[in-house]
Amino acid sequence: MNKAKEHIKEIHNLVKELATETDKVKLSEKFKEYLNFMAKFHNYSWYNTFWIMTQKPEAERVAGFRKWNELKRTIKKGEKGIKILYPVKREIERINGNGDAELQEHIYFNVGYVFDIKQTEGRELPTIESPRVEGDNFYFLLDVLRQFCNDNNIQLEFKQLLQNALYGYTRKEKEQIVITIKEQDNKNTQAQTLIHEIAHALEHTPFKDRQTTKQQEEIQADGVSYVVSKHFKMQHKGFNYLALYDADYKKIMDNFKVISKVSRKLINYIEEKLIKKVEV
Questions:
Q1: What is the rounded distance in angstroms from the CA atom of residue 271 to the CA atom of residue 145?
Q2: Dmax of the chain from CA atoms?
Q3: How many CA atoms lie less than 13 Å away from 140 in the CB half-sphere?
Q4: SS3 at position 88
Q5: DSSP state of 124
Q6: Phi-psi region for residue 90, left (φ > 0), alpha (ψ -120 to 50) or beta?
Q7: CA angle 273-161-130, nearest 5°?
Q8: How far apart are CA 51 and CA 110, in angstroms?
Q9: Backbone φ and ψ of 182, nearest 5°
Q10: Strand 82-95 vs strand 101-116: parallel, antiparallel, or unpaired?
Q11: Tens digit of pLDDT for each residue in 234-277?
Q12: What is the pLDDT of residue 1?
């Protein structure tokens, strides 16, 4: 069997493994409990997310005083709140063009306060294992992925990001693809995140006509991250991430073609660069 066929067979088996593990996660009571718990939290705007980060960079999960009380947790003595902006709607009487009085709705913003989970104490909360992996021993993989970005005209940057925010993201600036990776993460997590984002850059950037859903794109990107990581013997917990996107066995296997194509491209590139390093 030639190398290409071996890679395809390996990738197919790894994608099946990912699909099976994702189904197991979705069927677990712990996962269902976690989803019910997460539904109680508000999704903050990008402005509030940034403001929270500047005040408390280590924040993981924030909520207001009442929400924490509902979850049977109390604010620790001496803790200071994190400022956010919240909208307030008010109706004001105005005279319209016909000279008649009418009520017009206006939105104002007030300052409110939230608290991070580490500022609270009380009942234990449901959790699901983070897709984050530990260690820096795959630093060499991160180095090669940096080179891949450079060779493929992908701008790469490392920035401080909010603890409970994304591990990284991909965007388009004019005609340039830019990938941002969380600076404070360990090398292994950064490598896996970068593989995920490279898949987005190659397959889902705004340079292409969008013919896929967000769910499909996340299945494809994390499928690639899973396959490449496992090929190089690095731990990966993508099944928890994909379960949150309501992926299942069929949906994951339906995206095998794209996962296989991008995985092979990255695996071949990385192996070639690593072989050259050994030869030198």
A1: 11
A2: 85
A3: 11
A4: strand
A5: -
A6: beta
A7: 75
A8: 14
A9: -65, 120
A10: antiparallel
A11: 888 767 777 777 788 888 888 888 889 999 999 999 998 887 76
A12: 54
Residues 124 and 107: their CA atoms lie apart, in Å, by: 37
Closest Cα to residue 112, out of 74, 75, 82, 89?
82
What is d(CA 38, CA 43) in angstroms, rounded to the nearest whole number? 10
How many H-runs (helices) and E-runs (strands) does the chain carry?
10, 8
Torsion angle of C-alpha atoms 273, 205, 41, 85, degrees rounded to 10: 110
Chain centre distance of CA 217: 12
Q: Which ranges of 172-237 would DSSP assign to H, the alpha helix?
A: 187-203, 214-231
Q: Which pLDDT belongs to residue 160? A: 83
pLDDT, tens digit (0-9, with 9 covering 90-100), for 169-207: 888 887 788 999 988 889 999 999 999 999 999 988 755
Beta strands at 120-122 and 82-95: parallel, antiparallel or unpaired: unpaired
Contact predicate 84/44, CB 8 Å: yes
User: Residue 12: phi, psi to the nearest 5?
Assistant: -60, -45
Give the residues of the chain that fall short of pLDDT 70: 1-4, 31, 33-43, 46, 126-132, 162-165, 206-210, 238, 277-280
pLDDT of residue 80: 94
Helix (H, G, I), strand (E, B), or coil: what is residue 247? coil
What pLDDT is recorded for position 209? Answer: 61
Task: Please choose, from the candidates 124, 129, 162, 126, the residue with its C-alpha nearest in 3D space to the C-alpha of residue 243.
Answer: 129
Residues 6+ apart with CB under 8 A from 52: 44, 59, 62, 82, 84, 114, 162
196, 180 Cβ separation under 8 angstroms: no
Query: Which residue in 146, 200, 152, 161 sits closest to 53, CA to CA?
Result: 161
